């Protein structure tokens, strides 16, 4: 399958819905990149509403959007229902241990399509998330790539992750 990226970098909040409409509703691409925007819960809802009728979008890259608790929780809800997204990049946001819990629960119990998840450079992800990542490794068969580099793991947590991967 050919992959076509649509990159909307640094959009004003008012234009996020136009970007999503162009990319998702008009089926102009299958990977939506909304890097360096300020993605609000409202923006995630717009993306969610668009994805209900779309089966062409396979990836969403939301790098550096200050995405935090409510947005990550909404993304986890989207993943509960969505069966086409295989790539989700959430690197360099404000994702916390609690957000990882929501996402992990979805990947363990509901979603069987996501293959690539990037959470790197989320400094609010710490050692409390290790048990959630272990659950993902043990119970999710579809995820083949998980990047959690440059998060805030303590040495003991890093060792637990290494032990489970070996």
From TrEMBL:
<dbReference type="InterPro" id="IPR051261">
    <property type="entry name" value="NLR"/>
</dbReference>
<dbReference type="InterPro" id="IPR032675">
    <property type="entry name" value="LRR_dom_sf"/>
</dbReference>
<protein>
    <submittedName>
        <fullName>Uncharacterized protein</fullName>
    </submittedName>
</protein>
<keyword id="KW-0433">Leucine-rich repeat</keyword>
<dbReference type="Pfam" id="PF13516">
    <property type="entry name" value="LRR_6"/>
</dbReference>
<keyword id="KW-0677">Repeat</keyword>
<dbReference type="InterPro" id="IPR001611">
    <property type="entry name" value="Leu-rich_rpt"/>
</dbReference>
